[in-house]
Amino acid sequence: MNDTICAISTTLGVGAISIIRVSGKDAIEKVNNITNIDLTKKQSHTINYAYIKNNNEIIDEVLISVMKAPKTFTTEDTIEINCHGGIATTEKVLELLLNQEIRLAEPGEFTKRAFLNGRIDLTQSQSVQDLINTKSDKARALAINNLKGTTSNKIRSLRERLVKIITNIEVNIDYPEYQDIEEMTIEKIKNEIDNIESELESIIKNSENSKIITNGINVAIIGKPNVGKSSILNKLIEEEKAIVTNIPGTTRDVIEASFNLNGITLNLIDTAGIRETDDIVEKIGVEKSKKALDKADLVLLILNNNEKLTEEDKKLLEISKDKQRIIVVNKTDLEKKLDLNEENIVYTNTVEENGIESLLNKISEMYKLEQLETNDYYYVSNIQQLNKIKQTRRNIKDIKRGLEESIPIDMLEIDLREIWQTLGEVIGETYTEELLDNLFKNFCVGK
After folding, report:
1. Sign of CA dihedral 188, 192, 198, 201
2. Which phi and psi angles does 48 have, rounded to 5°?
3. Domains of the chain in sequence order
4. How many Å apart are CA 1 and CA 25, to the nearest integer?
5. Rounded CA separation 208/287 (Å)
6. Under 8 Å between Cβ of 269 and 293
7. What is the pTM of this model?
8. How far from 144 is each of 108, 121, 124, CA to CA, in Å?
């Protein structure tokens, strides 16, 4: 934390500009060594025209942002160099910075410093990453909402209520003669614990819904060859992404595409037709299809309207029965021969383009997409943080059992303290180095 770090913050490649970020107590002085102007005399939060130079050689014409501590993202002195886009130029400027004994930042280290310096907490740190990876407007709004501290403030409020309960219990036990301190009866504790449990349940439910908002829904389109899987994918995305022919087995590999439905990203996987085959290439495609099925959140099982149910169809119905599933009976423009008694059936044909809207409505209804709002949405997107909140829910259930069994109140205080401690770990009031490493390791280097 005492050294100065740097990293390229934009995608490395050909572009209009590249941005290199520098942060640390010596950031301004060290960058000043490779410019033709005196950055130490520039006011904070100014953008300055300059040249980057190596001795007498001009490397690039740049704009340099000077931001002085503590009003920066990391709360340290920060420099951002806007140089011309291009790999050679950007890497040369980075090389000059490294020659000034500025260290290359680790993944997520700028955000980690912002956390360690008290600029943001852990839930806000994760929201930075969510904002970078967002694929939809709802996901963006969700990340921004959390970055403002919505969830953090809710968890702090819960911890304050727990502290009040714990404090009152201790005073009641140690100073029973105090008449002006509220007595924490079994009934009062139970009522407060019920309210805290309800709010934790809300965070857990929202967190699980946030996965849909942030990551989208992985949808595997499966079926035997030549039932119209690729045609349906093309109609859903309104693009001729997959090759469509009347020849069974045309699709030999998985084809991926995505589109937006009610603000939620649907990640489609058009799989190779699943059947027994001696064709080596097609066999590889079938195996990939089965793996895609395992990872899918939702399965669209395509069946032929103009064929009776085959053994292959029956196998597909069996292997997908435990998944969230919609059965799509395709080719309704042809004579009906399929007799099926299943739930969640949609009828389509891609010739007259009938049924595609019904399919979209069924997906929206199944996941309640229109009800997924992002205003005042309390959630955590990191799996470790979510597990800790679920742990507090288990602890609360232990407390409630203890209350029902008339366990002495001072014994319940231990569980209350553990809940308070665990919620502190969620927002980073208490933390371990292992927790921080796991949280920031998936960040890009320049963030």
Report:
1. negative
2. -125, 130
3. 5-121 (3.30.1360.120), 216-350 (3.40.50.300)
4. 9
5. 30
6. no
7. 0.70
8. 18, 14, 9
Q: Give helix 150-174 / helix 409-427 axis angle, nearest 10°.
A: 160
CB neighbour burial string for 60-99, b if at least 16 within 10 angstroms, e if fewer: bebebbbbbbeebbbbbbbbbbbbebbeebbeebbebbee
Yes or no: say if 224 and 316 are a contact pair by the CB < 8 Å rule. yes
Q: For residues 128 and 146, what is the distance between their CA atoms, to the nearest angstrom?
A: 9
Residue pair 10/96 in contact (Cβ under 8 Å)? The answer is no
Reported as a pLDDT band with limits 50, 70 and 90, residue 196 is: very high
**Per residue in 231-288, pLDDT tens?**
888 888 887 654 444 444 444 446 788 888 888 889 988 776 555 555 554 455 556 6
**Residue 64 CA: distances (Å) to CA of 14, 35, 76, 79:** 20, 10, 16, 7
* Long-range contacts at 207-212 (CB < 8 A, ≥ 24 apart): 207/379, 207/380, 207/381, 207/386, 207/389, 209/372, 209/379, 210/142, 210/377, 210/379, 210/381, 211/381, 212/264, 212/367, 212/369, 212/372
Contact 131, 92 (CB under 8 A): no
Tokens linked to 433: 């180095």
Which is more confidently placed, 338 or 31?
31
Question: What is the number of other CB atoms lying within 10 angstroms of the CB of residue 330?
Answer: 25
Cβ neighbours of residue 100 under 8 Å, at least 6 residues apart?
30, 31, 33, 34
Measured at the CA of 262, the angle between CA 260 and CA 263, to 5 degrees, comes to: 60
Contact 367, 264 (CB under 8 A): yes
- Poorest-pLDDT segment among 59-63, 179-183, 202-206: 179-183
| Mean pLDDT along residues 100-126 | 92
Measured between alpha carbons, how far is 439 from 435 in angstroms, rounded to an integer? 6
Q: Which of 362, 334, 365 is nearest to 346 (CA)?
A: 362
**Locus of tokens 């080719």:** 331
Q: Which residue has the higher pLDDT, 239 or 63?
A: 63
